[in-house]
Amino acid sequence: MTASGNSQPVAVVTGASSGIGEATAKTLAALGFHVVCVARRQDRIAALAAEIGGTAIVADVTDGAAVEALADGLTRVDVLVNNAGGAKGTQTVADADLDDWRWMWETNVLGTLRVTRALLPKLIASGNGLIVTVTSIAAFEVYDGGAGYTSAKHAQAALHQTLRGELLGLPVRLTEIAPGMVETEFSVVRFGGDQDRADALYRGMTPLVAADVAEVIGFVASRPPHVNLDQIVIRPRDQATATRKFTRPESD
Ligand SMILES: NC(=O)c1ccc[n+]([C@@H]2O[C@H](COP(=O)([O-])OP(=O)(O)OC[C@H]3O[C@@H](n4cnc5c(N)ncnc54)[C@H](OP(=O)(O)O)[C@@H]3O)[C@@H](O)[C@H]2O)c1
After folding, report:
1. What family classification does the UniProt entry report for this protein (predicted)?
2. Is the CB of 239 under 6 A from ligand 1?
3. In angstroms, how far is CA 224 from the centroid of its own chain?
4. CATH architecture for the domain at 10-243
């Protein structure tokens, strides 16, 4: 790719076609990174890459060959943001849908593993690599109807935190970003496309927006090389835990 041949640092953002990933790609581009925007929806990442002067690479993080091709196409990687992921369904454990569980584990856990492993040599070779993994408060809390997602996010966080120790002595920093409620396409995806149900979740409270999280990732990426922000939890003021939020009464 063109940008890897020059001196501009390169950031790879997975799940850049919407929400936190899209906002993060914009933030990192504004900070001077050449951003490689990765997702499955080609039209969206192509438009984003054109807007921010980056590169769009279509890759499904659940597809090993696609992830290898992504890595092979890059000669330089300074920052990796493992953001692709999400939730499907709200079934109890008793009624668990195995396909939904497989989707969540494949995307959040094994997707993060595949992309991280494929890009790790280049992150180390950069001399000042950074891996940001977007987990969730679901990485350290559980709630009824959430086991498929909370177990996947717990596992994704364990993978990320293990790497922190395994890479000691190498020039790579690792930051886990654990957001609470952020209004993106997340809930629409979780509820199978039911926009009304997603809207109802945020009614009467003020959730985070994607840019709130992206700004924090930008702060992380602009610290000096010896400073490692290990874990950052970011929630709306209206949310205390995964199950406790403040809801204002309807005014009309
Ligand atoms: N929103 C929240 O409340 C919240 C809270 C805590 C943590 N998070 C986490 O934040 C991350 C981003 O979510 P979001 O809120 O921004 O949701 P979103 O708007 O639904 O974005 C999810 C992104 O992941 C990408 N993606 C999904 N499956 C993929 C796959 N197999 N391969 C490549 N890309 C894939 C999607 O792109 P394509 O569909 O185009 O592939 C999309 O760009 C997720 O890891 C999520 O678990 C979200």
Report:
1. Belongs to the short-chain dehydrogenases/reductases (SDR) family.
2. no
3. 22
4. 3-Layer(aba) Sandwich (3.40)
pLDDT at 4: 45
Q: What pLDDT, on the 0 to 100 scale, is given for residue 2?
A: 43
| 102 Cβ closer than 6 Å to some ligand 1 atom | no
69 versus 249: the higher-pLDDT residue is 69
- β strands within 166-223, DSSP E: 172-179, 182-183, 208-209
Q: What is the mean pLDDT of residues 163-182?
A: 98
Is the pLDDT reported for residue 156 higher than 90? yes
Residue 116 pLDDT greater than 60, yes or no: yes
Beta carbon of 107 within 6 Å of any ligand 1 atom? yes
22-38 tens-digit pLDDT: 999 999 999 999 999 99
Q: What integer pLDDT is reported at residue 5 of this predicted model?
A: 52
Specify burial of residue 196 (Cβ count, 10 A radius: 0-12, 13-18, 19+): exposed
- Domain limits of the chain? 10-243
Least confident segment among 4-18, 112-126, 129-143, 190-204: 4-18
Cα of 84 from ligand 1 centre, angstroms? 5
CA of residue 6 to ligand 1 center, whole Å: 30
C-alpha of residue 18 to centroid of ligand 1, in Å: 7
pTM for this predicted structure: 0.97
Give catalytic status of residue 202 as yes or no.
no
Under 8 Å between Cβ of 25 and 54: yes
With beta carbons less than 8 A apart as the criterion, state whether 25 and 57 touch.
Answer: no
Q: How far is CA 9 from CA 4, 131, 180, 197, 243, in A?
A: 8, 14, 30, 41, 40
Ligand 1 atom showing the smallest separation from residue 21 Cα:
16
